[in-house]
Amino acid sequence: MIDQICKKIENKIRNYIFINRNFSEYDKFQWKNAEEIERIRTQKLKNIVKKAVDFVPFYKNLDLKINFENFTLDELKKFPIINKQMIRENFKDFCSVKFNGKASHTSGSTGAPFEFKVPYESDAIEKIVANRAWGMGKDYAYKSGDPIIVLRTYSPKEGEPLYKISGDNWFLSPFHINETNLDLYLSIINKSKAKIIRGYPSSIYIFTLLLMKKDIKIPQIKTIATSSETLLPKYRETIEDYWGIKILDYYGQNERVITAQQCWASNYHNNDDYGIIELSDKNEIIATSLNNYVMPFIRYNTGDKAIPLEGKAPICPCGRHLSVPFKGIEGRSDDILIKDDGTKVPSINIYTIMHELEFIKQFQIIQFKNTDIVINAIGNLDDAKELLLCNNIRNRLGNVAIKINVVDEIERDLSTGKIKTIIRK
């Protein structure tokens, strides 16, 4: 017990020192010109590749003949594409024999948790990059130390208050967004003086619907940042229309391989000092970490799918030269549904249906191994509308059995506070 406490204290001190030493450099990086960004990420990739082929058995045994004297980003193509299954089956071979770090894992939403290692300074890097992302608004640029309303994560136990203040973060429970608690939530937001609210897309969407119902505006909020759930088209449209603010959506993985976030111009910028993004011929996101030398993720297939750019990458009006690798996220690896013939269907196909059916305010789809579907839906559904919904779903998934439950609320995962839009069992 004492050892665990000491390790936590040691880790906090280590992160504090890393942030103080590196925050300014990371913050300035986003404003560098394209040539300088390319030079820095090429050097970072070279360092990771060198440590991988020298000290990681899997890469060392490949004998890739990397040209370190005339190193370019093209050297990356010499590496094979890897995935979760390969790492699971060869865990030790993917770990550095020289550099140690801390163990981590995914939530296991699609099966067994996926275990991996990250450097000790990984938490500090996450905090720095997130702070940078929240500062990409137009009328207000968040700065580290500014108060933030956080509509996610916090799950109060019975008898505990529905809010919690931790440093600059003013947490509001995403489990208790209703008319009874609205005055309290508005009071906390006003008291915080925060100009930014961040949270799960579902949390902010539900809060927005409540504000719309009561015709309440909160002009002090200038930035809305979402992450950790798929931002559905209906969520985006409703939130942006009511608040008059473009959402800054943030994409990443628990494995901490790459991250990308939207600026006020709605372009997804890759954090080019964090990772490198490639798209496969199936538009799968292939990611390479520029920070993880403990267990290098090089050309890692995330399983997530991107919406590719239409033509050349845009020159962003926000003024940043961080690369724009894709138009959006088509579906995360745990958002895939299965047709009656076994074909995998990206979630974007289902989100499009639900966006067009305006009588559905919110939904959750649960699919079982035999492809049967249960839909939990909030909205005004009669028999005719239920039939329309079933027909639309079957047009995408084939002749699957469908059961519709009209509910007042979609339950959140008690451990994470998220609402899973698509669940496979």
Summarize this entry quickly.
The protein has 425 residues and is an alpha/beta fold. The protein is built from ten helices and 20 strands. The chain is globular and about 70 Å long.
Report on this model:
This protein has 425 residues and is an alpha/beta fold. The protein contains ten helices and 20 strands. The strands form five sheets. Strands 4-5-3-6-7-8-9-10 form an eight-stranded mixed sheet, with helices on one face. The chain has a four-stranded antiparallel sheet with strand order 11-12-13-14. A hairpin with a 4-residue loop joins strand 11 and strand 12. Helix 9 packs antiparallel against helix 10. The radius of gyration is 22 Å and the shape is globular. The model has no long low-confidence stretch (mean pLDDT 91).
